[in-house]
Amino acid sequence: MKLSKSKFAQVLLAGMAATIAQGALAASTLPQRWQLNMHPGVTQTSRDAYDLHMLAFWICCAIGAIVFGAMFIAMFRDRKSKGAVAATWSHNTKAEIVWTVLPILILIGMAYPATGVLINEAYTNESQMTVKITGYQWKWGYDYVNWGDKAYHVHFIAKLDADSDKTRQLKSGLDPMAVKDASGENTYLLNVDHPLVLPTNTKVRFVITGDDVIHSWWVPALGWKADAIPGIINDTWTNISEPGIYRGQCAELCGQDHGFMPIVVKAVPPEEFKAWLEQQEAAATAPATPAAPATAPTAPAPDAAPAKA
Fold first, then answer.
1. Domain range for residue 149?
2. Relative to the CA of 177, which of 92, 224, 287, 292 has its CA 20 to 30 Å away?
3. Which residues contact residue 239 at a Cβ distance below 8 angstroms, ignoring those fewer than 6 apart?
């Protein structure tokens, strides 16, 4: 069947629109309307997790097709109205061996790559940078420990941004859909006052702990989450391949304001990150300006004693 020029143009435009929509979805790590699948993320760990998810998905699809296919074939081909007579046997050793061994082999085939991903995620050696993350009720503390061989003393607290905090108050009368970032993306309860800035193409090690109760630091685009437990240090790593802003939230119920504890990671090129980090280090280590000494009020001079004759 031949398409007219106008029909062909409509199909072409529809295909281009779909491609652009997929590109927009890939560029954004926030959930999109009608999004049905996971996002591949921006790290090797997140892409590995996505690949494992798709492997399990297609295995489940194949199993479902075989099981339901066999069931429907048996229902329609061997129904009583066609004169089918039920078999009288109740066991089949060969069939039982097959449906026992085959699932075991499938599970082993799925476990092998998954184990490799978990081992790789736990390997924090050869990191180029270390950041300490501390969970508080209900904010995050960040300490830049080192980058390369140089130690740093940069520390700050990140908490819910002022716009979201003001909007979430009861009877505020403000519209949550009106809380947007500079790009026009709705960031209600997903933005902070001080994002965690990280360099791209750099292996960053995180040491994660809690100060009061158990929290969980989770940014989906990075492909993992780690519990922040008081008195315990968990460590993991990431290597972000693309500059951008990636958002997450505390993933462990931690009290009254658990839902108001977002995470924002801002990934920038290494040169830009170096300039930012040196600026923060200079501000953190700058000597405090001594306060001018208070000038004590001068007491009036006492009257001179009269001279004796």
1. 129-285
2. 224
3. 43, 44, 201, 202, 203, 204
